[in-house]
Write a structure and sequence with these properties.
Chain lengths: 155, 155
DNA sequence: ATCCTGAAGTCAACATAGTTGACATGAGGA
DNA sequence: TCCTCATGTCAACTATGTTGACTTCAGGAT
């Protein structure tokens, strides 16, 4: 799962615009890339990658989540969850224990080490957002949120 | 490369927020997903996927682009480009011919069929953006662009 | 005790999307 | 003819996902 990482990331290509919204379309692409670039590099240094971070991120915000719920939230199959989850357990970034009442399900929690990595990875993503928000000011940030909410809820 | 597609996509999970910017972070994730969802479904129906669309998108905006330049813009290896590019050539969505002067390089162009698919796929992505922009109005849209530019150029 | 069920775990086969490395081909230019 | 550049191709590998088919673990019901 580890990759050597390449740090510097892919300058924006200058392409002719066939539509007014082509610029926006490309910004979404480079925006996503830009937000995740440093976090991915950090994760790669830890021998982890995006799927691991997604797991850590969700468990951090839903302590004692059951594995089945995690599968639902991540939107992947239990087989796909299996490998990254086991790696996180082996590396003691997560713990799992049977629920006290519902012994059928297992509850996941971050260890201190898991928390640290989750925080550092997420921090790198938020840092990119924070700097962008600071540059455009509160009204621009509010506009961004409004647009993104509209897009996210367009399904 | 074709997948059966699942159409409806993954409602936003409600997670506790550990940081003010967690909401923004999640919006970027779901925003990217939301923008590409319908386009991906359309592409899957055509037996194509995201890498094919990226090729079609770039060639549409850089007619007569050489393969080497395409590799640079996409940021992948020529071996990775090989399969999707050959599929597009076989399906006659792209043509390649030697350059008149620089016989060493081959120039890529979209066929009419390739143009149609590129337009329909990109249209689906822009449609999501357009509706979001319409919902928030011009100032919000401008804010969105500003933030995304700041993020995209943060590398 | 036995059977059923729900949650989790595991194994195999496959698809997709990418990587490096090595080498072949095609077309000028010296 | 030889060199070089752009392209093409083969092989092996990694990573992330999919389905399908089982198994195991833990209660609950009869």
């Amino acid at each position: 799962m580890a990759k050597t990482s390449q740090a510097a990331g892919l300058h924006r290509a200058s392409l002719a615009k066939l539509d007014d919204l082509d610029a926006a379309l490309e910004l979404m692409y480079y925006g996503w890339r830009g937000m995740t670039l440093e976090a991915d590099a950090y994760l790669a240094k830890q021998g982890l990658s995006r799927p691991h971070h997604r797991i850590l991120y969700v468990v951090a915000r839903r302590p004692d989540i059951a594995i089945g719920s995690l599968i639902d939230i991540l939107g992947i199959s239990k087989q796909a969850l299996n490998r990254p989850l086991n790696l996180l357990l082996e590396r003691k970034l997560l713990t799992s224990k049977r629920s006290p009442e519902q012994h059928r399900s297992k509850l996941l929690r971050l260890t201190a080490a898991g928390q640290r990595i989750e925080q550092r990875a997420s921090h790198r993503e938020r840092k990119v957002l924070r700097e962008a928000f600071d540059r455009v000011g509160a009204p621009g940030a509010a506009g961004w949120m409004g647009v993104m909410e509209a897009i996210a809820d367009s399904n």
